[in-house]
Design goal:
- By secondary structure, the chain is mainly α.
- The chain is built from 50 helices and seven strands.
- Helix 25 packs antiparallel against helix 26 and helix 32 packs across helix 34.
- The longest helix is centred in the C-terminal third of the chain and has 21 residues.
Length: 904
């Protein structure tokens, strides 16, 4: 996923409220806010109407620091939504910041809160400039995860961040410890109350003449510095000249605000204006055309004919409780207290059916203008559940085409389960979400449900999507040819504009063609398409992944390594975390099979750092690769520690497939560390019928691990059972052309035959394994089981079969030598070079090797048949890539990187 967070964000929620020209600047409070900026937190806490938002907006307007603003509401009571807005707010200031955390929004399985908090803390800490983030109306948040997240951020605050919470209530996390550590500042109701002097100044500005001290004192006694009370007084004076009478009638708090506003403000407005106010009260934000869409109805339910433009002009000059949301004067919202008053009046004045009509018209306008999330919200708020469902259904491909399946998931979660079960488009949307979460086992029941529905809504595009998922099921069941034919049929039928369907089919078409024996042809198609497509989208990334998969399955590790390195370079260039995670996983797999243990450890560790971005079993498989590589490198303690981390991750995801695979890897480690009895107990108590992707690319397949245990246990019955299963798995892998698994299965069949005394058959199985392994240099499986197959290999070598390959294994790889003796000799220098951040070209590598032997430029040129000037250019490139200044430093750097050894 590319991690874009544009679809569901209302940009106007990120605008700071504009300060009225009549606003009274409160210098003492803004100075206090300035002093607290070095602290992690400032809390502005007071009831409604005390000017919290106005104070903060005025302060930020004059502050020298960059600042971001989020206007929170009840719709943000979800950690995912809250995080989306927080990241979007930070990126209004620093567009390239928080990219890693943003990518986690598109992770197949949303990471735990603590993981996201730590990611964000680290990224915010990299921002050198101090900045402010205001979370306005924080009291609307009651989600415990959000509160825990903010608390976690404040426990380990980034030095650059100053967080401001504006709220009617104190947040429900431990403020006492922040006070004790002097890590927060506080502004309370007593600070926000206007002083007598401020009341006098405010009224003079509003009324245009001085007010006597006695009247000011009376007003102060009545409102006790309540800012909204002052606003009400000035509004009332437009209709009554007697200030003393106004003071007498003012409410003492907002419990009586509604009655006062109705009698003193609304009652004096024309009916048409009141109608416009009441109708637009349903809107969380509004512009002129949206007001018209809601108010001007054919039903005549309200006489709202003044027009949205005139209404907004009137609002701007009326000084009512309205908040501008952007610098262009297009979008506005009502002050929350005022909106609540208008809604109450609307409900008393009109029936539910007529109010529902306003919501429906707002929903239609938002849907027509592309504001999909607001359209869904208004439809649901007005009780139009079916209309909301249709909006989700009709727009389901939009977030998918934008790499935002997570947005589609959130929209589906708003709808009742019953209505989803009745509509094919919604069921298909759910299938897409599950597909991107790689919860494939949950998809078939949905497809069955869609095909069983007796309705006319199943159109051609739905049928093509049904065929796509059926093709996926066939693929994962190992039916390569059937799935390939179905995918080919779909590609011929797909409309040109349906990019998500085309992309998904193409990604699967390649591996299915490999299974069907047409891998070479499909690789050419993939190559051509990769050259033709842009390198920005998830589709191209997944196409690259698919291409490397095909090469590994075909047994061509050399080409796979080249493509995986290109993929890694591309992902780094694009700064795409999803692609980087997958490139490291694929390179880990390749170097694991090549038995480049140190390099494999590096890549698997990098993949695990981004494990939440890996779907399917790739995250657990990365743990498997790291565990097995540590064990092969004589680091059993690290293998055990990594295994414990893997089990925590598997439990955290509450994924039965992951836990099943994790326990299999655990059993495999037990075998490698000599705990045979524990592994046997696992084998005897595990249900292997639930394996998914049984013979795919994964380094560990539970059913094969079951056979590992049976072979190691070595009983006659166990060997017989293992032999039968392994022959079944061999046939499956031959049919699906899975080279790595065929090599593994053949090796175990050789061991079974050897233990059963059938040496000739054992050598035959081993010969077949070697024949498959030689072209791609699949070394690891042979080294891992060298103690079991050494005699068979010697026998095979004497027969002259793959003599060089078998001798290399027997001569160069001793499983009993220590890591200190071996940690460098198993690494291919060219592979090490290719995995550097800035690798040398092949020619630069050759030049450096001759320089290391002490040759001058002319001698190097003679050796390589190039000009001395060319040698000089290559040398300069080497110095730049190694960040050195001369030959001696370059050679020392090469030794340090293990590119070659002294004296070589």
């Amino acid at each position: 996923m590319t991690g874009k967070i544009t679809t569901a964000i209302l940009r106007t929620k990120l605008y700071k409220p504009r300060v009225s020209k009549h606003h009274l600047h409160r210098q003492q409070l803004t100075a206090r806010l300035d002093r607290w900026v070095p602290r992690p937190l400032t809390l502005v806490s007071a009831p409604a109407g005390y000017g919290k938002s106005t104070l903060l907006s005025d302060w930020l307007k004059i502050s020298d620091l960059p600042s971001a603003w989020i206007s929170l509401d009840e719709n943000d009571n979800d950690f995912y939504t809250f995080l989306s807005y927080l990241l979007a707010a930070v990126q209004t200031l620093f567009p390239s910041a928080v990219e890693n955390t943003k990518t986690l929004l598109s992770a197949p399985h949303f990471p735990p809160m603590a993981t996201i908090a730590h990611s964000l803390i680290n990224e915010l800490d990299q921002i050198e400039q101090s900045f402010i983030v205001v979370l306005d109306d924080y009291h609307t948040i009651n989600d415990k995860t959000v509160h825990g997240f903010i608390s976690e951020i404040l426990q380990h605050p980034p030095e650059s961040l100053h967080l401001v919470l504006s709220s009617r209530l104190d947040p429900p996390f431990g403020l006492a410890r922040f006070r004790a550590r002097r890590q927060m500042g506080e502004i309370r109701i007593q600070d926000l109350r206007f002083s007598i002097k401020e009341i006098s100044t405010f009224l003079e500005k509003e009324i245009g003449k001085p007010i006597d001290n006695t009247t000011i004192a009376a007003l102060d006694k009545k409102i006790e510095g309540w800012v909204t009370g002052l606003r009400l007084a000035t509004l009332s004076l437009r209709n009554r000249l007697d200030l003393n009478r106004v003071i007498t009638d003012l409410p003492v708090d907002n419990r009586y605000l509604a009655d006062y506003l109705r009698s003193e403000v609304l009652a004096n407005l024309p009916d048409e204006t009141q109608s416009y106010l009441f109708a637009t009260a349903i809107l969380n934000r509004f512009c002129a055309s949206l007001c018209d869409a809601v108010c001007i109805t054919q039903s005549g339910s309200l006489e709202c004919q003044m027009g949205g433009i005139n209404f907004l002009e009137w609002l701007k000059t009326s000084e009512l409780f309205v908040v501008p949301l952007d610098e262009h004067g297009k979008w506005f919202r009502y002050h929350h207290l005022f909106q609540q008053l208008l809604l109450r009046r609307l409900k008393k004045q009109l029936t539910k059916e007529k109010i529902s009509l306003f919501y429906n018209q707002a929903s239609q306008w938002c849907a027509d203008t592309g504001l999909i999330d607001e359209a869904i919200h208004y439809a649901l708020a007005g009780g139009h559940t079916l209309a909301a469902a249709k909006i989700v259904e009709q727009t389901r491909h939009i977030p998918l085409n934008e790499d935002r399946w997570d947005v589609l998931k959130n929209r589906l979660d708003l709808l009742p389960h019953e209505i989803i079960q009745q509509r094919p488009g919604l069921l298909m949307a759910r299938a897409w979400v599950l597909n991107f979460q790689f919860a494939l086992s949950a998809v078939p029941p949905l497809i069955d449900k869609i095909t069983a529905l007796d309705c006319e809504d199943i159109k051609e595009d739905i049928q093509l999507e049904i065929d796509l998922f059926k093709g996926m099921f066939l693929f994962w069941e190992g039916e390569g040819e059937s799935s390939m034919k179905l995918f080919g049929h779909i590609l011929e039928q797909i409309p040109a504009a349906d990019s998500i369907l085309k992309n998904e089919v193409t990604v699967y078409f390649g591996p299915a063609s490999q299974m069907a024996g047409q891998g070479e042809a499909i690789m050419k198609i993939y190559q051509n398409r990769l050259y033709a497509e842009t390198l920005e989208g998830t589709y191209t990334i997944r196409l690259q992944i698919s291409l490397v998969f095909i090469l590994i399955l075909a047994g061509d590790l050399i080409k796979a390594s080249d493509k995986a390195r290109q993929f890694k370079e591309m992902s780094k260039r694009l700064n795409n975390q999803f692609a980087q995670a997958w490139s490291h996983y694929l390179l880990g797999i390749i170097h694991y099979h090549l038995y480049h243990r140190k390099i494999a450890i590096h890549h698997f560790a990098k993949a695990i750092e981004n494990r939440y971005l890996l779907d399917g079993n790739a995250n657990i498989d990365s743990y498997a690769g790291l565990i097995l590589s540590y064990q092969a490198s004589h680091q059993p303690e690290k293998a055990i520690q990594t295994m414990k981390q893997m089990m925590v991750f598997a439990r955290e995801n509450i994924n039965s497939d992951h836990m099943h695979l994790a326990r299999s890897i655990q059993a495999r480690l037990w075998l490698l560390q000599g705990e045979l009895e524990t592994a046997v107990q696992w084998q005897e108590t595990t249900d292997f019928s639930s394996d998914t992707g049984i013979m795919f690319l994964w380094l560990d397949v539970p059913r094969i691990t079951q056979c590992r245990v049976l072979v190691q246990e070595g009983s006659k019955a166990g060997l017989c059972k293992a032999g039968e299963k392994l022959k079944e798995y061999l046939a499956f892998n031959q049919e699906t052309r899975n080279t790595p698994q065929m090599i593994e299965v053949l090796l175990f069949l050789a061991m079974v035959s050897q233990k059963q005394g059938q040496i000739s058959e054992a050598v035959t199985f081993l010969d077949r394994a070697v024949t498959l392994a030689v072209p791609g240099n699949y070394i690891c499986a042979f080294i891992t089981h060298l103690t079991d197959i050494a005699d068979l290999l010697k026998n095979l070598s004497l027969q002259g079969a793959a003599e060089e390959f078998t001798r290399r294994i027997l001569a160069d790889f001793d499983p009993y030598e220590t890591i200190d003796d071996k940690n460098k000799s198993d690494l291919d220098p060219w592979e090490i070079n290719q995995n550097l951040d800035n690798p040398l070209s092949r020619r630069e590598f050759e030049v450096l090797s001759h320089i290391a032997r002490g040759l001058n430029n002319k001698s190097v040129a003679d050796k390589l048949y190039i000009a001395p000037e060319t040698v000089k250019k290559h040398s300069i490139n080497i110095y730049r890539k190694f960040d050195v200044h001369n030959r001696q430093q370059a050679v020392l750097k090469a030794y340090e990187l293990n590119l070659f050894k002294p004296g070589s």
